[in-house]
Amino acid sequence: MKIALAQLNYHIANFEDNAEKIITAINQAKNEGAELVVFSELSVTGYYPHDLLERKEFIEKASQTVEKIAQACQGIAALVGAPSINTGSRGKKLYNSALFLNNGKVEAIRNKSLLPTYDIFDEYRHFEPNQEFNVIEFNGKKLAVTICEDLWDEQPTQNEFGKDKLYQTSPLEELSKQQPDLVINLSASPFSYNQENWRKNILVKNAVKYRLPIVYVNQTGAQTELIFDGGSCFVKEDGSIPVELDYFKEDFVVVDTERPVEKKQEQKDYIAKIHQALVLGIRDYFQKMRFTDVVLGLSGGIDSAVVCALAVEALGNEHVRGILMPSRYSSDHSVADAVQLAENLDIRYDIISIQNMVNEFENQLSPIFENLPPGVAEENIQARARGILVMAVSNKFGNILLNTTNKSECAIGYGTLYGDMNGGLSVLGDVYKTDVFKLARYINRNEELIPENSIIKPPSAELRPDQKDTDTLPDYEILDAILFKYIELNQSPEEIIKQGFERETVLKTVRMVNQNEYKRFQAPPILRVSSKAFGFGRKMPLVARYF
Amino acid sequence: MKIALAQLNYHIANFEDNAEKIITAINQAKNEGAELVVFSELSVTGYYPHDLLERKEFIEKASQTVEKIAQACQGIAALVGAPSINTGSRGKKLYNSALFLNNGKVEAIRNKSLLPTYDIFDEYRHFEPNQEFNVIEFNGKKLAVTICEDLWDEQPTQNEFGKDKLYQTSPLEELSKQQPDLVINLSASPFSYNQENWRKNILVKNAVKYRLPIVYVNQTGAQTELIFDGGSCFVKEDGSIPVELDYFKEDFVVVDTERPVEKKQEQKDYIAKIHQALVLGIRDYFQKMRFTDVVLGLSGGIDSAVVCALAVEALGNEHVRGILMPSRYSSDHSVADAVQLAENLDIRYDIISIQNMVNEFENQLSPIFENLPPGVAEENIQARARGILVMAVSNKFGNILLNTTNKSECAIGYGTLYGDMNGGLSVLGDVYKTDVFKLARYINRNEELIPENSIIKPPSAELRPDQKDTDTLPDYEILDAILFKYIELNQSPEEIIKQGFERETVLKTVRMVNQNEYKRFQAPPILRVSSKAFGFGRKMPLVARYF
After folding, report:
1. Of all residues in chain A, what percent carry a pLDDT higher than 90?
2. What is the pTM (predicted TM-score) of this model?
3. Domain containing B357: what range?
């Protein structure tokens, strides 16, 4: 059977554009002689529409769009993803469905059985799980149509108590009883750098176990925090993968399932993938929000330099504007390094000292502050004065402020709420500091865009004289290792200590993570690249007794 | 049977304090001759621990605490709520359980069947639903033990497409086949002013349908945004409710199920309830976070006045500090009204003009702003300068900033991010402006605490000369009606227009709501008093094409 794999980048609730993309791909597939074209999960609406799924007008628009797409299916069939109405008397009102479009209409509907409810997934909120299993017969073949998680046998959890468990049902086991010829999977599986081969392993395992070829179609593109990396593929029943689509971009191929023509992708290391993911994340955020221009504060440090370089790659140098905001504690090299960066990247920049504003705040507050020694309050005034300046530029010219906080800082609360934690989008909030260094080296792989001095100098917030991050924090290698074990692996402080880390350092780190839930509660959306990012995939109570 | 209803206020993850409260109540129940004492859902951990449920050390601590509580159960039995481990090979790793403690040990475990996944509920994320139904036999009676949602037949949704549906199973129907004598329900059901009799109706409906008395125990107290109102009760099989516990506070009573002694509660109107809820919400946030003191900006307007009065009631006048921050656009009466409020409430206040700081920002920005006419950028500088001042006081003295934004403003984005949207807790973010007026009148019911002028003057942000809210917004009566229909009732713009609202006003309002998701993304936690609050009970995609 000749099947087209259409790996597209959808825009949530933008039914017009999504339908146009889908219909264009249907026509292309037909022209290239395909019998069937497969799109990804919830392709009609974009993944994931969240509580828009509770709105009648949204569901009606989705149905109308499906009808419109169905009309394009003449002489070719298509599988698209969309919500469909549960007409029974029990359960949630919707299914997460694969709609089989043929002869100008919806000829069959297959619903998702395994609804993920871990990490960033929340599908049980809106959908009823399917309990009936039937192949679709088409052109003499039996197709086992599944949706994303349906191929996952084990519940992917990282909590370390009890054994890992299976789901209550195995959709593919049920479908395999009907002797299908081919498995089709419509997916919406986001990128995470530490789950690299996880997805392919699942596909291969299923293909081999059931001796069935699998057509796997994932979406690409970013939806606020989530970055979908594509990588759709055709897996043969022996577990080999002759056809693999591109990563982090739209792609399209027609596969003859009997005689697939090889299409391979270059393997990249994880830093190169994170780089691609973040560039796509920025670009799609701006395009889909209809924004064009960025503003960001340039401190001369590595975080803002990396974000600036990523923004230039995503949006073009003429759309990026840097603001340098030195204070009395800024070293000469900070300004020089930031200017060098702006010149290397050829972006517009301005220098505005915050000193007069800071002095004025301190003057006005001095009767209240009663000669108390300077401390966090005064440090935060500096960060917040900078926050006002960049937001003023943002408000005046419509440039969106990019946040430059990295995951290590975000974890331990080493940042000022309403100051440097401001921004429309956090670019590095899921990238540990040790990986920020690697990203900087990667960005400089061909030429020195980020000044060497920004990379090698000791990190500092420069909010008091001669301040360095290491005054109050462990070395980033140690800090990041502890954070990874605590956050990504859910290990307890005692388990981490047992692995050889200093007790005091572990307890202090964990305490900082716990005490700063309140800051993260108000943080911007964070581009997710790991298996456990801060944001809606990690829900911690704010008011609780930690420790 | 003599059963004690223990309605307590738990602290999430504070196992020591929760255990102490529970054991104290067990002893009291025993002293008062009860055979059984019933606590609320997840009473051992507090409701809801979110992803702490994924941490091994948390689950271990919960089990140890249950063992400790069980040891207190000698000569009396108890039903407590806690997570328990699913020892099967399939499904999630935990159940949401009612543990029957007797003779010093856990004698029986009953698991929750219906796991709510709507609005603020997210229980499928962590728990496997129960599928087995067995009464507990105790002292010659058969007890049908259920947990909260288990008594709900219909899925409570507000989406308006398709018919309302039943859950797949009805736990009480299953249990009723075993001829129980009594239904017991351990609950964690939060307050919302517009679902007043919803809960009682469900209980009465079940009691009458199955001809069974029901012991219903709810928790009280606030957990960040959620405010649990208690109102535990005993419902007779004829649907009458002879025993009702107090609202918004801990309460305890021993009921003889054969001959219950009447205990009734005074009925209050919805504004009085919202008032009680918000005072409890503030008090518990501070107590459980171990904070004592508040700071807030006093503008002379009604919102900050109401929040200030609520804070004084919750924490005491000596723990509340007001900061008046006039600018060149502040009218004389603004300062006078704010001073009057502070004096009426007998709180400390300071006056700091923002004008010098604002001037300095404008000076420094003028080379960049290139003589563009003043607008939103300049207005926001004022709001943000105030934000810096109150946060400086907060950082210096440890006072927590209360946010004073109301739900109408929050909905349409009529507030400055990193300015007046700052705060550790939003007190009025779920109270529409029209209800803020009613709250002010209620607060003044005995004496004029809030100056009459703050209530009657036209609302204004005072960020430009002679500005009034009605310059850009419809009257609050109309605005709030549209917002309620769009947000709480999920009605489409067309449905709202059909009810007689001006098309242009509806479309403009809805557009403002949609365009300001990004501001709410970074808003503080909001005390929830309605059936649909902004925050984690309303998940809207940020990047999407609205309209």
Report:
1. 90
2. 0.96
3. 273-468
